[in-house]
């Protein structure tokens, strides 16, 4: 059977890490694409030269022309600009919307059957625009944010209790940004909800709220440390988990930005929700019952995403049609 083909649009910090991880996991052959000529070619050669040492077989190439992504099974999009200290994700909207228009056209022409994972920020608006520009089915276009946000939450919880990250699960809903909704009663240590751990005296309500807030600010914490860009190892690892679930039909239940069709009272917008990713793409959107406080937090998150979508339509009115 032929190997799968994975196209990475954007070969910057996340793109390069994606290529290395996809190779290490032998998910398929890899094409790195970027407008900065030489960067995708150089990174591809560097990773190809690591393959004999690391012991994986993937053909890795770099390109600056969209023909190279032809027939890709998975496309992961990181093209655009990242944040610098003092910038919000939303500050990136104008520049990155133009990038999504080019990328969407490239995917529509050369990889219309691909499963597309968008990472470019502001995520919930960019993935919405990318689906429109590409014309692909919403089942085949998703945004990566929830896996990363919940991984950050898992790390902080595991670190707090000095337990394995493998035994911590976390549940994060809503848009990727300051309004994301980490759900403590659905986040557990070996199945014990965090809210029960508060009752059991493992931590106080106030400490749990601090961890939730650190999760919300997780991206900014790294931007402020790096000063020249944003996180890239954990974002790349998170997108690879999504790509792997599609390519291997694992049907993992992962939080991701998916286009809703009435769930949570939202239609035609991308919001972070738990979904099942398998060979059909988004195979199921899971709608859970929320209490009044959780619903209020989600509503705030939905209206923040709505504001970004409206800003996109102001710049490209055809998107509103
Ligand atoms: P960076 O290292 O700057 O890489 C971006 C790459 O995109 C650069 O190599 C550019 O040359 C390239 N590029 C720019 N315009 C185009 C274009 N029109 N076509 C093709 N390539 C282009 O950034 P990064 O890899 O650190 O981050 C990439 C994106 O991911 C940014 O928008 C970040 O904000 C975003 N990001 C999202 C998350 C989420 O959780 C959603 C996390 C971290 C970063």
Automatic annotation (TrEMBL):
Keywords: NAD, Oxidoreductase, Tricarboxylic acid cycle
Coiled-coil residues: none
Family stated for the protein in its record: Belongs to the LDH/MDH superfamily. MDH type 3 family.
UniProt entry tagged with the keyword NADP: no
Function description: Catalyzes the reversible oxidation of malate to oxaloacetate.
Pfam families, alphabetized: Ldh_1_C, Ldh_1_N
Active site: residue positions: 176 (proton acceptor)
Name of the molecule in the record: Malate dehydrogenase
UniProt domain Lactate/malate dehydrogenase N-terminal: residue ranges: 5-143
Organism this protein belongs to: Kaistia geumhonensis
HAMAP family: Malate_dehydrog_3
SUPFAM superfamilies: LDH C-terminal domain-like, NAD(P)-binding Rossmann-fold domains
Keyword rRNA-binding: no
InterPro entries named among the record's database cross-references: L-lactate/malate_DH, Lactate/malate_DH_C, Lactate/malate_DH_N, Lactate_DH/Glyco_Ohase_4_C, Malate_DH_type3, NAD(P)-bd_dom_sf
Catalysis performed (reactions): (S)-malate + NAD(+) = oxaloacetate + NADH + H(+)
Highest classification ranks of the organism: Bacteria, Pseudomonadati, Pseudomonadota, Alphaproteobacteria, Hyphomicrobiales
Top-rank EC class of the record's enzyme: oxidoreductase
EC numbers on record: 1.1.1.37
Protein residues bound to NAD(+): 10-15, 34, 96, 119-121
Designated gene of the protein: mdh
Residues given in the record as substrate binding sites: 83, 89, 121, 152
Single GO MF annotation: L-malate dehydrogenase (NAD+) activity
Lactate/malate dehydrogenase C-terminal domain: residues covered: 148-303
